[in-house]
Write a structure and sequence with these properties.
349 residues, alpha/beta, Rossmann fold, 7-stranded parallel β-sheet, 10 helices, 10% strand, globular, binds NADP nicotinamide-adenine-dinucleotide phosphate
Amino acid sequence: MTSDDIERTGAVRQPDSAGAIGAGPGGAAEDDAPPRRRAVLGAVLGAATVGAAGAGTIASARAAGSTAAEDSTPAGTGAASDDTAPGRFRDQVVLITGATSGIGEATARAFAAEGAKVSFCGRRTELGRKVESEIRAAGGDATYLRADVRVPEQVKKFVDDTVRIYGRIDVAFNNAGITRTAPLHELDLETWEDVHRTNARGVFLSIKYQVPHMLRTGGGVIICTSSGSVRPAGTAYTASKHAIDGIIKTAALDYGTRGIRVNAILPGTTDTALVRLEGISDEQWEEFKEAWGPLNVDGMERLATPEEIARSVVSLAQADAFSFMTGSTVYVAGGPHGGGKMHMPEGFS
Ligand SMILES: NC(=O)c1ccc[n+]([C@@H]2O[C@H](COP(=O)([O-])OP(=O)(O)OC[C@H]3O[C@@H](n4cnc5c(N)ncnc54)[C@H](OP(=O)(O)O)[C@@H]3O)[C@@H](O)[C@H]2O)c1
């Protein structure tokens, strides 16, 4: 079974409070479930794909600007020192993995609104082009480059093409991620490996290919998307996200004296496709969220919006605000527990 097969056969894509919410393949298909629950179970069992996966090369590079000037300005220093002013990232280059939807998409829009030149990837070409054209229509500068973070050659090409198009990388937001759920003994090796190839190895590869460009231009800022999810049936996801902690801490040691700050952001449950049970109606989703917040988000008792997380990423990337922060994970979780507490609301599974 290949990675693509896993996605097509849909080893269940489920919420993540900072990780996945729903039941995994081990979740029962009870015939006596109430209608709402049946809908949810149907969605759970009906397979969840995370977009059209597959090999394929990076497509659609913007032809223009392939020889963008390089300069010796220390990267990630922030174009403006006033951190409330619009255009804080004017003329800086921001690379984002996994920005065809959710947190990454919102972050691409937020950086572009701050004047950054944004290069982003994801596998769903149609969505990528849509995000790209909407950012451009709003007056921003963005380029979608199709890349699958599980494939080393594609990650390298995405990073190198970004530099070819925009000249440098000041900020990298390594955000692409998937979730799959199953009790540990029912978790098949292919699923475990696919989650790790995406969430952990994908981050490793991204940093590996980003760093040489940042060293060449004097430094930069790297932010990775972590998760505080610790829940039953969450072995693959939780382990893969905990790996990010190790990666950012050791990378911070490798590059601390060389101008590259490496941190992680840890969002609490955020209202994105990753956490929405498939097949659920908008009304059911609103009910779910209303119940989920008080049950699981100690503190604010609600889910975050992708835009809230995006604003935090943009702030964190500012060198003038966080010049002494590296190797840290920043909780943006609506409460102190970062989504570790995860109880399924009654009527949902
Ligand atoms: N939502 C939450 O509650 C929450 C909480 C904590 C952490 N997180 C983390 O936040 C990140 C973003 O998730 P989200 O909630 O915004 O969900 P999402 O809307 O599903 O976004 C996931 C993004 O990752 C991309 N992606 C997945 N596999 C990829 C691959 N192999 N290659 C390239 N891109 C890939 C997806 O693009 P394609 O499908 O087009 O490839 C998509 O753009 C993930 O790392 C997730 O673990 C989410």
